[in-house]
Structures are given as structure tokens and as C-alpha cells.
Design a protein that fits this description.
This protein has 158 residues and is of the alpha/beta class. It has one domain (11-157): YbaK/aminoacyl-tRNA synthetase-associated domain (YbaK protein), CATH 3.90.960. It is 25% helix and 25% strand. It is built from five helices and eight strands. The protein has helices at 11-19, 37-44, 77-83, 94-101, 146-152, and strands at 24-27, 52-59, 63-70, 89-91, 119-121, 131-137, 140-144, 156-157. The protein has a five-stranded mixed β-sheet. Strands 1-7-6 form a three-stranded antiparallel β-sheet. Strand 6 (131-137) and strand 7 form a beta hairpin.
Length: 158
């Protein structure tokens, strides 16, 4: 039986450890050309309905916020603005992601950003026993109970 490869913990994993929240770190092989949630789900051998992506937006009234949506969903900017108390919302430019959150595209976790932002979860997340979100780096996902994820990030459903 081959030895299990050691997985370095990310900041998100260390924060969950400190909070006593159960999770699993699930590594997968990264294809830099295909960073989509569909590609991640395929690498994990999981249904796309269990893989959620983290999207950082800027509102015209309340500043930055985060939406966590199903991997096969597109963000509705009008809905995102409404739920966050903004009149308008826009995606941040990929160049802003690292300085703002500490994460890169394809490795942005809703846990452990440089500062906490209001976080909103697509309501479908609450129907699942577990979900996958980025652990804070490409090639590593957190498998976690949605209720624990939402509570830890002080998130709200939309």
C-alpha cells in the first residue's frame, strides 16, 4: 500500500482547526488551463452540484463582498447587489484578487481572506450534506458541512 502524501495545511485549514470545525483536505491535480469548477468537479470525481466557487465583488454602496455559488451557476450581478444592500455590483478584476484577499484565481477560499467580507451563499448549499470549496490554493479543496462553513464565515443564504 503506497504511503499517503503529506498535505500542507493552508491558512483556511488552520483557522478551521482552531475553531474545532471538522473538514477534509482533498488534493487534486491542477490544470492551469482549466481552473473552472467543472474541471475541479471532474478531477474530484464529484457532482458539480457539490462544488462551490468563491466570487469577490465590489458594491457601489457597501464595498467588497463575497458570493459563494454552485460551480455550474453564473453570478447574477443584480441579485448580488440586492442581497448585499448595494444598487450595483461588479466582479473585481483578477489583478485585485491577491492584494485584496491573499488568494489567487482558482484558489480563492471563503475562509481566511486578509480581512472578513460579508459573505453570501447560494441557498442550494444548505440542502447538501457536504460541499467542496477552495482550501486557499490551487489543487486543494476543503470538504466541509455547509452549516459549518456558513457559520464560520458568518454567511447568509440568498
Amino acid at each position: 500500500m503506497p504511503a499517503r502524501k503529506h498535505i500542507d495545511k493552508t491558512n483556511a485549514a488552520r483557522l478551521l482547526d482552531r475553531a474545532g470545525i471538522a473538514y477534509e483536505l482533498i488534493p487534486y491535480e491542477v490544470d492551469e488551463e482549466h481552473l473552472s469548477a467543472d474541471a475541479v468537479a471532474a478531477k474530484l470525481g464529484e457532482d458539480i452540484a457539490c462544488v462551490y466557487k468563491t466570487i469577490v465583488l465590489r458594491g457601489d454602496r457597501n464595498g467588497h463582498f463575497v458570493c459563494v455559488v454552485r460551480g455550474d451557476s453564473e453570478i447574477d450581478l443584480k441579485e448580488a447587489a440586492r442581497i448585499s444592500g448595494n444598487k450595483r455590483a461588479e466582479l473585481i478584476h483578477v489583478k485585485e484578487l491577491l492584494p485584496l484577499t491573499g488568494y489567487i484565481r482558482g484558489g480563492c477560499s471563503p475562509i481566511g481572506m486578509k480581512k472578513p467580507f460579508p459573505t453570501y451563499y447560494q441557498a442550494s448549499i444548505a440542502e447538501l450534506p457536504y460541499v467542496y470549496v477552495s482550501a486557499g490554493m490551487r489543487g486543494l479543496q476543503l470538504k466541509i458541512a455547509p452549516a459549518d462553513l456558513i457559520a464560520f464565515t458568518h454567511g447568509q443564504l440568498f
